[in-house]
Specification:
About 40% of the residues lie in helices and about 10% in strands. The protein has about 500 residues and is α+β, with helices and mostly antiparallel strands. The strands form 2 sheets. It has a 7-stranded antiparallel beta sheet. It has a 3-stranded antiparallel beta sheet with strand order 3-4-5, with helices on one face. α8 runs parallel beside α9 and α13 packs antiparallel against α15.
């Protein structure tokens, strides 16, 4: 009996130890599961930070780089696009509702969204949302009833997931110049070359603000619907875009722009104007206050394709808004070399699913005589492109950069192209490391069809010798290595030391 009791006690002790060990093992598994992702996050952040090197000589990586993923440009069917939508906006709407007054929150959340049927009940492409039933939906899954309940100037940062900009307290409109975008790449291929949008820099102002606004308003007075136009069904997208622009200005430049307490008046202290936001179409409000261009692309519920439905574009060369309005995305880009072969279908896919939280940016460039902002087909300035004038001087030669952003609007689901035409005298490149070498490489060795589309030939007899002299000078002064192998700069579109030069030019 004693032996049996001793054996029982021993087995009980073993059972307890097994239970304890099992518990410890489970606890360690949980800890490992929790810690491992954090470890990976920390390593990921470390790797991301390590890319922000500001070394004056952009290094060539000594280790093999992973092969870049090639965009899928295989044909996409109407059936595929018709069932492709961006991420649903209901979660963001619920998060915003928690911060609203009770009565508005009650109205907003009183609309029950049936996720199984909302994609079959979309607002028609040409329908004004103000005359639609409450139970119709936009491509981001929000009902017309919910949009009505939100009212004017909702918190677009919360709805889109893109934060408002930080106030730019040291900004002085009398001295401000645009950042020096230099979007040169080598090896140069025709791709979209997209990067993440910097929320603080969606819209930029410069010391030429008053003159630019006046120039754009004059262009509209002269050319009308060739530079500003809206088609039926774009009412919500235009209102939403205008409100997002004004919210941005008031947040970024509070010393110059304000919204009245009732959100019905916009105060522009640079122009000395107070504007009733109900008195004009939203695109006209944009024309009066924003020195940048916008093209509103909207999803056709029947096909899933995106069409150009509204915009204000005052800085087009060789085309104008009137010649593109109403066209499908691929039709707009038809003249661009390699677009159909390399980008058309991948861009259709990208548009179909682009989330509001991931706006992007890119740049295109050309070399121009003087600073032509608006040059529609047949404009007299086009004559400069037909010959290499022996009288052309380097002082008249400029880099033109069209810096572009692309973002989805959270309420309407429209996608907005935004761009600004910026001119820089070629002589500025003399003290900008690597820039002369990059331009020389691209112009001389870039794909023929792409360079013909850029139409740089009429300036090359003056610009190329100047760039050669700048490159030689940079090598002699030790600004760049003599044997530097031309490639896209690590911090593209920026060159080493750009910020110091930019600040100095503004008197910082």
């Amino acid at each position: 009996m004693q032996a049996r009791g001793l054996l029982s006690n021993l087995l009980a002790a073993v059972d307890i130890r097994l239970l304890v060990l099992t518990g410890i093992f489970c606890f360690l598994c949980v800890i490992y599961t929790l810690v491992r992702p954090r470890k990976q996050d920390v390593l990921s952040k470390f790797r991301l930070r390590s890319r922000d090197s500001h070394a004056r000589t952009p290094p060539r990586s000594l280790t093999p780089q992973p092969e870049k993923k090639v965009p899928n440009n295989s044909a996409v069917s109407v059936e595929q696009l018709g069932t492709s939508f961006p991420p649903n906006g209901q979660e963001a709407l619920e998060s915003l509702a928690e911060k609203l007054p009770f009565e508005q929150r009650r109205k907003l959340m009183g609309y029950k969204v049936d996720e199984s049927v909302w994609t079959q009940n979309l607002v028609p492409l040409t329908a004004d949302y103000r005359s639609c039933e409450d139970n119709l939906y936009t491509p981001t899954g929000l009902s017309v009833g919910q949009i009505r309940a939100l009212g004017s100037f909702p918190d677009y940062a919360e709805l889109s997931g893109v934060p408002l900009p930080q106030p730019y307290a040291e900004f002085d409109i009398s001295k401000a110049i645009p950042r020096p975008y230099r979007p040169f790449r080598w090896a140069y291929h025709q791709t979209m070359s997209l990067t993440k949008l910097e929320p603080d820099w969606w819209l930029e102002l410069a010391s030429t603000y008053k003159e630019t606004i006046a120039q754009r308003k004059l262009l509209y007075a002269q050319h009308g619907e060739s530079v500003l136009q809206w088609l039926p069904g774009s009412e919500l997208a235009c209102k939403e875009l205008m409100e997002m622009c004004l919210q941005f200005l008031a947040a970024r430049y509070p010393q110059y722009f304000r919204l009245s307490g009732d959100k019905k008046t916009f105060i522009n202290l640079i122009l000395g104007e107070e504007q009733d936001l109900r008195a004009k179409h939203p695109l006209l409000i944009i024309l009066d206050n924003i020195p940048e261009d916008f093209a509103v692309m909207m999803r056709d519920p029947d096909s899933g394709y995106y069409f150009f439905r509204a915009g204000v574009i005052c800085s087009a060369l060789g085309w104008n808004l009137g010649s593109k309005i109403g066209l499908r995305l691929n039709e707009i880009h038809e003249p661009i070399p390699d677009y159909k072969e390399k980008m058309q279908f991948s861009m259709d896919r990208f548009f179909s699913k682009m989330p509001t939280i991931r706006p992007i940016q890119r740049g295109s460039w050309g070399l121009e005589v003087d600073t032509p902002l608006y040059m529609p087909p047949g404009d007299p300035h086009e004559m400069h492109r037909l010959s290499q004038s022996p009288d052309l001087t380097i002082e008249r030669c400029h880099l033109r950069v069209d810096w572009q952003t692309l973002r989805r609007l959270p309420l309407s689901g429209a996608i907005v192209f935004n761009f600004k035409g910026l001119f820089t005298p070629v002589q500025e490149f003399r003290d900008e490391p690597y820039i002369p070498s990059l331009i020389l490489k691209v112009v001389r060795e870039g794909k023929k069809s792409i360079m013909e589309y850029k139409n740089t030939w009429h300036t090359e007899h003056v610009i190329l010798p100047a760039l050669e002299a700048y490159e030689k000078e940079q090598v002699e002064n030790g600004m760049i290595p003599k044997d530097w192998e031309v490639h896209t700069l690590d911090d593209s579109p920026w060159y080493p030391g750009w910020k110091e030069k930019w600040h100095k030019q503004q008197g910082f």
